[in-house]
Specification:
Layout lengths: L6 H13 L6 H29 L2 E5 L8 E5 L1 H24 L2 H4 L3 H17 L3 H20 L4 H32 L4 H11 L3 H18 L7 H6 L3 H25 L8 H22 L3 H22 L2 H32 L10 H4 L1 H15 L5 H15 L3 H25 L19 H16 L1 H16 L1 H9 L6
Antiparallel strand pairs: 1-2
Length: 496
C-alpha cells in the first residue's frame, strides 16, 4: 500500500476547507490555492515514477482488504491524467488571478476551485463505483456554483439547465449502481471485473453497461450535449477553460475505465455502440463549430468534437487505438485550456464575442495571435505538435480494427476543427485594425504567462513524443490487461 495515493484528494480538499475561513483575504487564498495545486502536481509526478518502476499503486482505506473497504488505485493511465489535469488547473488559476473580478474572488471562488479539483482527482483515483459517483457529485456541486458566479441572468439560466441535466444523469447513475450491486454483490471495480467475467457478461449486464455508458456520455458531453455549449460559455474565462479541459474528461475517463476493466466481453455490442456514439458526436460537433459566429460557441463545439475523437480509439480496443486515445486525451486537456484562455483574452480585449465585430488584433497583439495559430495547428493534428501522434495512432487503430468509417469521420472532424478555428483566427486577428490599444476594453498584462506555458507544452509534447510514448504505451497496456489492475488491488489476497 502507498499512502501517497490519497494525497491528490486530501491536499485540495483540506486546503479548500481551510480557505473558507479566509473569504476576504484574497492574496492569502491565491497563495494557498497555488501551493495546493503545485504540491498535488509534485505528488502525482512522484506517483508516475513509482508506477513506472513498481507497478500500479494502491491504498486500502482503514486497512480493510479489498473488496470490503474503500480502494484507491492509480495506474499509469489515471496518473497521467492526474498530472496533466493539475498542471492545467494550476495555469487556469494563474489566469484567474489577473482576469477575475475581485468581487467574484471573495465569493468562495478558490475553495470551490479546489473542491472541483478534489472531485476530478478523486474520480481518477477511486477503485469503487459508488465512490466514483460521490466524486462526480463533489465536482458537479462545485461546478454548479462556479458557473453561476457573477450572478448574470445568462449564467443563472445556464446553471439551472446544467443542474437539471446532471441531476437526471446522476439519478440514472444511482439506478445502474443499485442494479449492478444486486447482480454482482460488489461495487469494487476490480471485484466487479472478476464477477462480470465469471458471468460472461450476459444480456442484462450488457444493458446495465449501456446504461452506464449513457450516464457517462451525458457527463462527457457526448451526443446529448445540448446543455454543454451554454454551460461552458457562460462563466468567466478561467472557469470555462477549466471546464473545457477537465470536466468532460472525467466522464471520458469513466467510460474508459468501465469498458476496459469491467465491460469488455461483448465488444461487438458495447464497443460498436461506443464507436457509433463517437461518430455521431464528431459529426454534430463539427456542424455546430462550423455554423456559429461567436468565439465561445465555436470553442465549446470543438470540445465536443475532441470528446468524440477520443472515444473512437476506445471503440477499436487495439493497442494503437487506446494508446492514441490516451495521448490525444492529454493533448486535448492542454490544447482546450489554451484556446479557451486565448478566446477569453480576445473577448476581454474587444468587449464582444461576435466574430463580425472584431478584426486586426495581430498588429497590436502578435504573440497572442501566433499562440492561437499554434493551438489551431495542434488541435488539427499538424506535425510536429502534440495532436499529431494521437491522431495518427487513433486513425491507425480504427483502420486496423476494420472501423474504416470511424477513421474517415475522425479525419473529417479534424478538417472541421481546422476550419472553425481558422474562422476565429482570420476574423479576430487578420484584416483592418478596428481598435487601437488605447481603445481596447482590457489588457493582456498578466494573462500571457499561462497562455505561453500551455502553448509551449503543446510544442514540447509533440517534439519530444519519443520521451512520452513509453508512458502512453504502458497506460494502453494496462487498459488492455485488466488482470494487472485486479492483481494490484487484491495484492495476492484470495478473491471472494
Amino acid at each position: 500500500m502507498n499512502n501517497l495515493v490519497v494525497l491528490p484528494i486530501v491536499i485540495p480538499l483540506f486546503t479548500g476547507m481551510f480557505l473558507i475561513m479566509f473569504k476576504e483575504r484574497i492574496f492569502f487564498q491565491r497563495l494557498l490555492a497555488f501551493l495546493a495545486l503545485a504540491g498535488t502536481s509534485g505528488v502525482t509526478y512522484f506517483l508516475i515514477y513509482q508506477i513506472d518502476h513498481l507497478g500500479i499503486q494502491t491504498l486500502q482505506m482503514g486497512s480493510w482488504p479489498a473488496p470490503y473497504g474503500i480502494t484507491l488505485a492509480v495506474d499509469m493511465f489515471s496518473a497521467l491524467l492526474l498530472l496533466t489535469g493539475n498542471i492545467v488547473a494550476l495555469l487556469c488559476l494563474l489566469f484567474a488571478f489577473r482576469s477575475l473580478d475581485p468581487q467574484i474572488e471573495t465569493t468562495y471562488f478558490y475553495p470551490l476551485f479546489l473542491f472541483l479539483i478534489t472531485g476530478v482527482n478523486g474520480s481518477f483515483i477511486t477503485g469503487d463505483l459508488f465512490n466514483l459517483y460521490v466524486f462526480f457529485e463533489v465536482l458537479l456541486i462545485a461546478s454548479y456554483v462556479l458557473v453561476s458566479l457573477g450572478g448574470k441572468r445568462r449564467q443563472l439560466r445556464e446553471a439551472m439547465k446544467y443542474v437539471v441535466i446532471n441531476v437526471i444523469s446522476s439519478t440514472l447513475f444511482l439506478f445502474a449502481i443499485a442494479y449492478l450491486y444486486s447482480l454482482t454483490g460488489t461495487l469494487n471495480l476490480a471485484h466487479l471485473s472478476v464477477r462480470v467475467a465469471e458471468s460472461g457478461q450476459d444480456g442484462f449486464t450488457t444493458v446495465l453497461a449501456l446504461l452506464l455508458l449513457l450516464v457517462f456520455a451525458i457527463k462527457a458531453g457526448l451526443f446529448l450535449f445540448f446543455w454543454l455549449p451554454g454551460a461552458y460559455s457562460a462563466p468567466p474565462t478561467a472557469i470555462a477553460a477549466l471546464f473545457a479541459a477537465l470536466m468532460t474528461k472525467v466522464g471520458i475517463y469513466a467510460i474508459f475505465r468501465m469498458f476496459t476493466l469491467v465491460f469488455y466481453h461483448q465488444l461487438s455490442i458495447t464497443h460498436l455502440f461506443i464507436g457509433i456514439l463517437a461518430a455521431v458526436t464528431m459529426i454534430l460537433g463539427g456542424f455546430g463549430a462550423s455554423a456559429f459566429g461567436e468565439i465561445k460557441q465555436i470553442l465549446t463545439y470543438n470540445v465536443i468534437i475532441g470528446a468524440g475523437f477520443i472515444l473512437a480509439g476506445l471503440a477499436t480496443y487495439t493497442p494503437e487505438g487506446l494508446g492514441g486515445s490516451v495521448f490525444y486525451l492529454i493533448h486535448d486537456m492542454i490544447s482546450k485550456a489554451l484556446v479557451f484562455l486565448i478566446g477569453g483574452t480576445i473577448i476581454h480585449l474587444t468587449g464582444t464575442t461576435k466574430l463580425k465585430d472584431m478584426s486586426g488584433l495581430i498588429r497590436s497583439h502578435p504573440v497572442l495571435g501566433w499562440m492561437f495559430f499554434l493551438a489551431i495547428l495542434a488541435l488539427a493534428g499538424i506535425p510536429p505538435l502534440s495532436g499529431f501522434v494521437g491522431k495518427v495512432l487513433v486513425t491507425e487503430g480504427t483502420f486496423s480494427s476494420g472501423y474504416y468509417w470511424l477513421g474517415a469521420i475522425g479525419l473529417a472532424a479534424s478538417l472541421m476543427i481546422l476550419y472553425s478555428l481558422l474562422k476565429i483566427f482570420m476574423n479576430a486577428f487578420w484584416g483592418e485594425t478596428v481598435l487601437s490599444i488605447e481603445e481596447e476594453k482590457g489588457t493582456t498584462r498578466g494573462l500571457m504567462l499561462p497562455v505561453v506555458t500551455l502553448a509551449a507544452l503543446t510544442v514540447v509534447i509533440g517534439l519530444f513524443a519519443g520521451f512520452f510514448v513509453p508512458y502512453i504505451e504502458q497506460a494502453a497496456y494496462g487498459l488492455l490487461h485488466p488482470e494487472l489492475y485486479i492483481e494490484a488491488v487484491f495484492a495476492g489476497n484470495p478473491i471472494p
